[in-house]
Design goal:
single chain, alpha/beta, 9 helices, 34% helix, globular, binds adenosine-5'-diphosphate, Metal ABC transporter permease
Length: 229
């Protein structure tokens, strides 16, 4: 499951000032859609609407055909995982930061879930590996390691829909490439919305939409859009 559909979505933070002017797109289950465009185009607004931080003025947003206005916040949070640009870590261990929000789960349960979701592979990308590092404090981590923790935390929920919101924008270019490889791997298995501001970083998305001032001005595969440039 996990098909995401926006149909003629109109939205303004202030109803008098519309920000999104009739946005429509479909991300079929398991596919990746990238939303690119300049700062202020409305990319983050689309992500916030998907999480239902705001209600739209008209149109509809559905996941697997179900209007998100009709589902509980709880099931929406279970359905959508987000990897943000710069996750703020708690001043606690890596393990705590990954497992946060799963109160009641024992360390053994968390470990088992993490293993099932193949989270260890990501953490093992850290120089000394998961088992020796899980007890370390999160605040000492580098930018790339922090993003691995953010990814691990998101994957632990095993959400059918994944939102990558400028998830590598804050990293240096070598680390960015490394984390992008990790993200590409996990996005192959689930419905993914990638928010980015450069076309060059979303090469293998199934579809790319270019947003400008709240309108989709172009859409297509990467090769089509590059040709049109
Ligand atoms: P992007 O993510 O593409 O940079 P945003 O979705 O953040 O763009 O912003 C789209 C428009 O909405 C901009 O004009 C921005 O100023 C406005 N905007 C964003 N957040 C808010 C808010 N909380 N209240 C009012 N206007 C906002
Ligand atoms: P920016 O342009 O702001 O630097 P990026 O374009 O680097 O932002 O990336 C936004 C996010 O999308 C990053 O987490 C990146 O790894 C991810 N990403 C880019 N292309 C793909 C893709 N085809 N599939 C999955 N994730 C992708």
């Amino acid at each position: 499951g996990g098909t995401v559909q926006f149909d003629q979505v109109h939205f303004g933070y202030d109803p008098q000032r519309e920000i999104l002017h009739g946005i429509s797109f479909t991300v079929p289950a398991g596919r990746t859609l990238a939303i690119v465009g300049p700062s202020g185009a409305g990319k983050s607004t689309i992500a916030r609407i998907l999480f239902r931080f705001y209600d739209i003025q008209s149109g509809s947003v559905t996941i697997d055909g179900q209007d998100i206005a009709a589902v509980t916040q709880q099931s929406l949070r279970a359905a959508i995982g987000i990897v943000p640009q710069d996750m703020v870590l708690f001043n606690d261990t890596i393990g705590y930061n990954i497992a946060y929000g799963r109160e009641g789960a024992s360390q053994a349960e968390i470990e088992a879930t993490a293993r099932a979701a193949q989270i260890h592979d990501f953490i093992l990308g850290m120089p000394q590996g998961y088992d020796t590092r899980v007890g370390e404090r999160g605040l000492k981590l580098s930018g790339g390691e922090k993003q691995r923790v953010a990814i691990a935390r998101t994957l632990l929920k095993d959400p059918p829909v994944l939102v990558l919101d400028e998830a590598t924008s804050a990293l240096d270019s070598r680390t960015e490439t490394e984390i992008q490889t990790v993200l590409r791997d996990i996005s192959r298995k689930r419905t993914t919305l990638v928010v980015a501001h450069r076309l060059s970083t979303v090469v293998d998305a199934d579809e790319i939409i270019v947003l400008d001032q709240g309108r989709i001005v172009e859409r297509g595969a990467h090769a089509d859009l590059v040709r049109a440039d």
